[in-house]
Amino acid sequence: MSNPWVVLILAGIFEMVWAIGLKYTDGFSRLWPSVLTLVAMVISVLLLAQAMKTLPVGTAYAVWTGIGTLGTAILAVFLFGEPVTVLRLAGIGLILAGIVALKLA
């Protein structure tokens, strides 16, 4: 893939996968969830490194963590029944705004 932004988005998606996967590993005591989580971690970091070949490090890292945080917070509501509050929604909105601002900068 040649578009660094697409690579970075994929890296962020894999970050969501491993962050959610951590919950299913039960402290890395369950084999297959642990294996899948570790594979997702490696893929995420490798894709981030690839994107950083052309994107500024500060922007790439912030967007990567922002995608991971945003996606993980949203998925946690659906997968684990975490509460949806006005403050949580405002925080998610601010993270999304930050990602967009960094993409446009």
UniProtKB/TrEMBL annotation:
One GO cellular component term, please give it. plasma membrane
Please, which domain of life does this record's source organism belong to? Bacteria
Cell location:
Cell membrane
List keywords of the entry alphabetically. Cell membrane, Membrane, Transmembrane, Transmembrane helix, Transport
Biological processes annotated in GO: xenobiotic detoxification by transmembrane export across the plasma membrane
Any idea which GO molecular function terms this record carries? Answer: transmembrane transporter activity
Its membrane topology is listed as:
Multi-pass membrane protein
* InterPro entries assigned: EmrE-like (IPR037185), Small_drug/metabolite_transptr (IPR000390), Small_multidrug_res (IPR045324)
TM segments?
Answer: 29-49, 61-80, 86-104
Q: Which PANTHER family match?
A: GUANIDINIUM EXPORTER, SMR FAMILY PROTON-DEPENDENT DRUG EFFLUX TRANSPORTER SUGE
- Family, as annotated: Belongs to the drug/metabolite transporter (DMT) superfamily. Small multidrug resistance (SMR) (TC 2.A.7.1) family. Gdx/SugE subfamily.
Q: Tell me the protein's name.
A: Guanidinium exporter
Which organism encodes this protein?
Rhodobacter ferrooxidans
